[in-house]
Amino acid sequence: MNIRLLALKIHIPSRIKKKKLEELFVLVVDAFGKPKPTLKGLSYDERLKAFASYTAEEAETQIREGQHLEEIKTKLYENAYKLGQKIRDDFRIRSIQEIMKMSRILYQILGIDFEGDRDGEVTIKKCFFSHYYSDQVCELISSLDEGVAAGLSEGGKLSFFQKITEGKDCCKAHLVLPEEKI
């Protein structure tokens, strides 16, 4: 049993939530190549709203301009992959069950109701970002989800096949692990 995961499952301290959101913000602003808005003095909830607004606005701008979308998706994925790897190493994640537990914790930090099972099936019943993102924005930003999942699983592939932003009642995805891993 992974004691560190169990402790986070019970309670996620505010400082950890702020730190993880800050890390996510940094990798997103790097991908967009834009300055990060000032978050000083904001509560965690205010920071989460700022992150949602920032990503929605920047993604909409890039989509409207139609330039560099593949580069942005690649950068989001690569940055998120590194974050997922770091979390995997820090928490010694070694099984599909631990990947799903950590994913649930990470998504909980972001106001997302994540459920995942040992077969790699993922359901998201509620998503904080669905109130901010269009389907196109969600498609672009989901590169973060794919990258973190790949990093946590040492190269697995997360594929969404249904999304709330498409008008569905929940998001559905599947995580396929590499044959030689986990």
Number of domains: 1
CATH topology term: Muramoyl-pentapeptide Carboxypeptidase, domain 2
Number of helical elements: 6
In round numbers, the mean pLDDT is 90
Biggest β-sheet strands, sense, barrel: 4 strands, antiparallel
Radius of gyration: 16 Å
Helical/strand content category? alpha+beta
Gross geometry = globular
**What percent strand?**
5-15%
Tell how many strands the DSSP assignment holds. Answer: 4
CATH architectural type? 2-Layer Sandwich
> What is the CA–CA distance across the termini?
15 Å
Order of helices and strands: HHHHHEEHEE
Strand order, largest beta sheet = 1-2-4-3
Quick summary of this structure?
It contains six helices and four strands. It is of the alpha+beta class. The chain has a four-stranded antiparallel β-sheet.
Can you describe what's shown?
The radius of gyration is 16 Å and the shape is globular. It is of the alpha+beta class and 182 residues long. Helix 3 (44-65) crosses helix 6 and helix 4 (69-91) packs parallel to helix 6. The chain starts with a helix and ends in a 6-residue tail after the last strand. The protein has six helices and four strands; from the N terminus they run αααααββαββ. It has one domain (3-176): 2-Layer Sandwich (Muramoyl-pentapeptide Carboxypeptidase, domain 2), CATH 3.30.1380. A four-stranded antiparallel β-sheet has the order 1-2-4-3.
